[in-house]
Amino acid sequence: MAPILEVEGLQKRYASGHEALSGVDLTIEKGEILALLGPNGAGKTTLISIICGLVTPSGGQVRVDGHDIRHDYRKARALIGLVPQEIALEPFETVWNLVRFSRGLFGKPRDDAHLEAVLRSLSLWDKRDAKVHELSGGMKRRVLIAKALAHEPKILFLDEPTAGVDVELRRGMWEVVEGLRARGVTIILTTHYIEEAEEIADRVAVINRGQILLVEEKARLMARMGRKELRIELQHRIDALPDRFAAQGLELIHDGNAILYHYDTRGERTGIASLLAELAEEGIVLRDIVTRQSSLEEIFVGLVTEDAA
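C-alpha cells predicted for ABC-2 type transport system ATP-binding protein (309 residues):
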C-alpha cells in the first residue's frame, strides 16, 4: 500500500537567511497516528504549513496520496484537514453555519447528514445552533476539528489540539482522535504534552533545528532507548552504601531508606540478580522493589539535548 503522505528533501529558507527546514524526509502510512515532537522553533509549524499549502517550500517534494502539493495543489489540499493551534472563529456565527461554510470552501456538495455525523462524533450536535462566543474553550477546539473534517479529508493535522484545555477535556479529545483513526483518518499531531504522544501515537517523529532526528514506532523507541529504574525499599535505614557498590552507580535516597539502581533495557543482563545477592551478603534487608520505565519525555529530552551538543 502506498503511503498517504511522502515528504522528500523538504527545505525552507526565508529571505532573512534563516533555514527553518533542512532536507526533511518523512513517510506516513494511511490510518496511523504520528506524533511530531520538537522544542519551540524546531520546524514543526513550518513543516505542517508547507504540507497544507500555506507556505511555499524552497526545495524538495511533498505528495499527498500521490498528488504533488505544488503541481496538483487543489487535489492535494482537498485531502487535508488542518486544526490550527490558535482559536480563530467568527464569534457571532453558529456552529452549523461554520461547518457548512467550511465544506463549501472545498467545493463539496451539500451533505447535511455528513455534517451531522461529524458534530455528533464531537459531542457538538446539541450546540449546532449556538454562537461561537457562547461556547467554552474546549467546545471551540472541537468546532475547529469539525470545520477541518467537514470536507471529508483523508489526513488531519492537529497543531497543539489540547493547548490550554483542562485534563478532563484533554482525555475527551484523545477519545475523539481514536474515533477518527477508527474511521480511517490519518492523524499527524504536534504537541507539547508528551503524555499525549505516549497515550495515542503509533509512531513518534522528533524534529529539531529543521531536521528529523528519528521516526520510530513508539513502543520500539521506548524499548530501544529507554532505561529502567529499580527502586529498592529497605527494611532498615542505612547511613551509607558499602564500598563494593561504588562502581555500580547506586544511589542512596529517601534519607537512607531506599536505593536507586538504573539499568539499560538493551543489555543482555540487568545485573539485578547479582545486586540483590550482594545486598543480602552485606546484611541489607529489602522491604519492597519497584521498577519504572523511562518515559517518552525523558527520551525526547535526551535526543534534543544530544542534538544540541
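DSSP finds ten helices and 14 strands in the chain.
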